[in-house]
Every structure is written in structure tokens, then in C-alpha cells.
Amino acid sequence: MSDVALLEVDHGVALVTLNRPEARNALSSELRAALPELVARADADPEVAAVVLTGADPAFCAGLDLKELGRSGGPLRPGDREATVEPTGEFSGSRASMLPTDKPVIGAVNGAAVTGGLELALHCDFLVASERARFADTHSRIGVQPAWGMTVLLPQAVGIRRAKEMSATGNYVDAGTALAWGLVNHVVAHDELLPFARALAVDIASNDAGTLATLLDSYNEGSRGTVADAWHVEGRAFRVWQRVALDPGEIERRRLGVVQRGRTQV
User: What is the pLDDT of residue 259?
Assistant: First the structure.
């Protein structure tokens, strides 16, 4: 396995690091192959409850490797398996191709997340940013159409008008603005980024894994349809749980733990 991406597992948390710091972790063909492989390995590990995705300093990810792109066209050429638009108009390269896991993924954005790097961050379930984080969409400056979800996921995060501004100007958004706009959940000191993200992942690991997986699936499926569709998705998930997983004794056991944990947080 190449060292352009690294995997470390500790106490139920998988840390996946993009490791091309000399190229600002740009997504070369080698890195695009290595990243899904490591994430899939974390997904298959029964000891892993959550994944933290980050980049080796100084950047999170500068997007596609433009030097490689300028030589070969890379994943932008017709027929490339990573950027295929189906005849139905549906893009095949959803989160499942970029981050192939059903486990929660926390993006720990340590520096610039640009264009394809911003799309990669948007595929995470939520983001924690270092004070050094910066976000930009430069598709229109480079002259490349997005294919990894920019026009879908960025409006979901910040609203359609702010998304249009980011894409139309190519301007960078700093960490504080990203927090105010809802693009990231937290901004922390740079040295605290990974400890903070790991702590959130440990909190995730303390939950019932099956319930959480279904809950996150409901969020994801519901976000792809109308409000009425989302209500249907939640109701369907509840009825399945009610029929096959309802266990009053387990609920009581967990209730006591929830009460005790709540007393430490309020």
C-alpha cells in the first residue's frame, strides 16, 4: 500500500490522513485509488465505530492534482470510472465511491479545502475546522465542471445563494465564516483539531451502532427527496425497528447511562 494515504485505528476510531503534503494533498490518481481502499478497510473493521478524515499539514486537500490533470485529463475523460454520468443523468460517483462506508465520517479540516477537496469534505457527515481552514470552489476559474456533488452538497450546507457566490467568485471563505454559514460545526485551535474530532468520534462510538446507522441512513435518504418523502423514510425506519429490534430491557439499561451522562454535561 502506498503511503499517500494513512490509516490508524485507536479505541474504535479510524483516522484516515491524506498524505501528500508537498502537493497540498492534491488528489492524484494514486491517492484517489488509495483513499477509498483505506476507508473501506475501516468500514469492514468491526472495532471501528467512526472515521476521522484529515490531511497532512498544511492543507486538507487542494482538489484534483492539476499537474497530472494537465498532462492526461485524468478522471475528466469520458468513461473514467470515477466520474461517469449515467444516461439517466444520475452521477455514479456518490459518497459510496469517494468514502465507501456506512459509518459516520467526521471531516477534520486542517487547512485549505479547495474544489475537489471541498467536495471531499462535503461528503463527510459533518466537519470540524482548524482556525487555519479555508474553503473555496474554483471550478469556474479552472474551467472544469464539477462531478463529485458540488452543486448538490454545497447548497445543502450553506444555502443556494451562498453556494452560488462561492462558485461564481472562487473566493476563499475563512473558518469563522464557514461556521457562521453552517458549512462546519465547530472551529477550534489548530493543535486541538484532531483531539477534538477524536473526542466526537468517541462519543459516537458510545452509541448503539445499529440504531445510529439507521438514523443516519434516514437523514441521508430523506435529504434527497421532498419533506413528505423524508417523513415517509423516518416512519418506515421506525416501523422496521418496532417490529424487529424493540427491546424494553435494553432501553432501560441505556436510559440509566443517558441520565448519568447528561448530568455531566448540564
Answer: 87
On whether the pTM is more than 0.85, the answer is yes
- What pLDDT score does 92 carry? 44
Binned average pLDDT, 10 residues per bin, the chain of 266 residues: 90 97 96 96 97 98 88 58 40 71 97 98 98 98 94 97 98 98 98 98 94 94 94 96 93 88 84
Altogether, the residues listed in the chain come to a count of 266
Cell of 30: 494514486
Which CATH superfamily is 5-205 part of? Answer: 2-enoyl-CoA Hydratase; Chain A, domain 1 (3.90.226.10)
- Domain extent listing, the chain: 5-205, 209-263
